[in-house]
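Interim report to the steering committee. The following record documents the input for Glyoxalase-like domain-containing protein (127 residues).
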Amino acid sequence: MLNIGTIVMGAADVRRAADFWCRALDYVPRGGVVEDAWTMLVPANGSGAGLALGFSETPAQEHPRVHLDLYADDAAEQAAEVRRLVALGAERVDWDRYPDDPDFVVLADTEGNRFCVIDMSHTPPPS
């Protein structure tokens, strides 16, 4: 059975993106090295999917087809993590597709790659 080993994202500044994601996720560069064109980040605790960053001049998409979802246990943790990520260099995205009662906040990393911070305790209203 296959499993996800690495998620690959493009970045115009691989070093800056690597610095952000290492601090955001407690990841470290595999082999301790960050290259300008390609780098692989792995969880510091050794468990979980890797995140690779490859040089790309393609602009980030406003509505990307693929993005990361980062999970927070509850609304308080979600708010704290959003504040922490913004302090690390992420930006809040003025997302035009939020539902009425969202369980997620859309952010962009230092390269404009969008990702969400999800409140896993959120119960959506009945439909």
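The chain has two domains: 6-55, 68-119. The committee is asked to note this result when reviewing the revised timeline.
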